[in-house]
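Notes from the 1:1 (GR / supervisor)

We went over the backlog. Supervisor wanted to see one worked example end to end before approving the batch request, so GR pasted a single chain during the call. The sequence is below; no edits were made to it. Supervisor asked that the structure be written out right there so they could see what the output format looks like.
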Amino acid sequence: MDSTVLETVVTKVKDGMSAITVTPVRLISRLEPGKEYPSPGSFILRSVESAGEVIESGDVIVITSKIVSILEGRCYELSQIRPSLRARLLGKLFGEQSSKVELILREGRILAVFPYKSVLKNKVIRKRMQQVSVDQSKSEKVIDSFRNVFMIRKYGVYLDEAGIDASNLPKG
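Structure output shown during the call:
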């Protein structure tokens, strides 16, 4: 995804009818992981205003999680993460990069480790997963990319891999 485009969704109600207008907004500057930014809200509002858009009461702004992660400084280079002893032990035990496990531990307490790859060796489960998939080739890629899935609970929500997503990032 291009990190220079922000999508805003503006909902207007006129004469009892709802109309939804989707307006892509170009950010005021290209986002770079590792760079310091002002608060995400002020950066986004400045981008919307510089695009000539006016935010009115009732408007909804939709922002991709990638943009929020970069603005919050939550993109990491795995080689720069120093894993704790616990992360190194869990990484070795479950065949995962210890730096990735360290990031998961920073997000919350690990509640369970789901043996994803082992479970999906069951032909019935794998076939069922493929049946509900919109794109089977992408599903196969996801299935093959995870060996074990770490589960945490944060903000009352259960998150696999602590909500960490590196699917559209370069390796590392």
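Supervisor's comment: The first helix runs from residue 40 to 50.
Batch request approved.
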